[in-house]
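Hi Y.,

Following your request, here is the sequence exactly as I used it, all 118 residues.
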Amino acid sequence: MSLALRIIINICLFTGAFFALAGTVGIIRMPDTYCRMQASTCIATMGMIGVAVGTLLYAIFIEKNAAMAVKLGVVMAFVLFTNPISGHALCKGAYRRGLRPKRPMVIDDFKEDDPHDE
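Below is the corresponding structure, written out as tokens. Let me know if you'd prefer a different format.
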């Protein structure tokens, strides 16, 4: 049981580390602000979830520490709720600042909300 559990924990940690690395590479390699926002919010969130689930399993089954498990659950919930909101706010701020994607947008929903844009 312990070996299988440790393998599952290691897989979760490896998957989380892979997504975090992919998000970092995406931030560096993407062509414009909006693509970088996608890499920094979605993929980095997935990386955090993998690492947090692996650590949560470790806290519950190996360390048997309920306080650590509750704290990890709160951190996971906080990141899951705040990361998409902050990414949206950053994209909207970049749009209002005048940054546009390199390719023309097919649908421009922000233009309807922007009172300063003519």
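The first helix runs from residue 2 to 29.

Thanks again,
Q.
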